[in-house]
Design goal:
Order of helices and strands: EHEHEEHHHEEH
Strand order of the largest sheet: 1-2-3-4
Strand content: 5-15%
Structural class: alpha/beta
CATH architecture: 3-Layer(aba) Sandwich
CATH topology: Aspartate Aminotransferase, domain 2
CATH superfamily: Type I PLP-dependent aspartate aminotransferase-like (Major domain)
Number of helices: 6
Distance between the termini: 21 Å
Number of domains: 1
Oligomer: single chain
Largest sheet: 4 strands, mixed
């Protein structure tokens, strides 16, 4: 419900953790601020990195946004990544990374080998949209629209199933998880 159980990290000597703290996939949990600090403390203690995938953080409905891990630390332990595809179009395959200074050259080299065909025209158009303030305005508009769609979905689920279901992850993001309470085993496979 609250994302990664950071208290379980004690004693784990891993050097990398991948998290989606703003809207955990697939259940939609939002990692509370205390857990975020605990995860960063673990990263510092283990000289580890945390990959923070903030793929749909623009969509908050009934909760105040929790600061991203990247903004909470100053030790260079967080590799922050996001995408524009959730706000503009899935066809616009533009993502971004914010990496610690000591990793910038490594990531730039890896990108050259992995992908030599970045969409230059689309990136320039996006930069212009961001600089003009148009992107921020668009995000506000789609957040409102998706919030209305979310309310419609939640209302339809409540109308159709009432207390026979539990909805999880509806406070943020673009997906929800629906749990059917007391569903007979014979019907489970029909739904999956």
């Amino acid at each position: 419900e609250d994302g990664m159980k950071t208290e379980l990290l004690a004693g784990i000597g891993a050097r990398l953790a991948y998290v989606t703290p703003s809207h955990q996939f697939p259940l939609g949990g939002v990692m509370p601020i205390a857990r975020r600090h605990q995860l960063l403390k673990w990263a510092r203690h283990n000289n580890a990195y945390v990959i923070e995938d903030d793929y749909d953080s623009e969509y908050r409905y009934d909760i105040n946004p929790v600061p991203p891990l990247h903004s909470l630390e100053d030790h260079g332990a967080v590799i922050y990544l996001g995408t524009i595809s959730k706000t503009l179009s899935p066809m616009l395959r533009i993502g971004y990374l914010v990496v610690p200074p000591e990793l910038q050259e490594v990531f730039a080299t890896a990108k050259q080998f992995a992908d030599r065909h970045s969409p230059v025209a689309e990136q320039e158009a996006l930069a212009s949209l961001i600089e003009s303030g148009g992107y921020e305005s668009h995000v506000r508009r789609v957040r409102r629209l998706n919030g209305e769609r979310r309310e419609t979905l939640l209302g339809a689920l409540q109308h159709s199933f009432g207390d026979r279901i539990t909805v999880q992850g509806a406070d943020a993001g673009l997906h929800v998880a629906v749990w059917f309470n007391d569903l007979p085993r014979s019907r489970e496979t029909a739904l999956v």
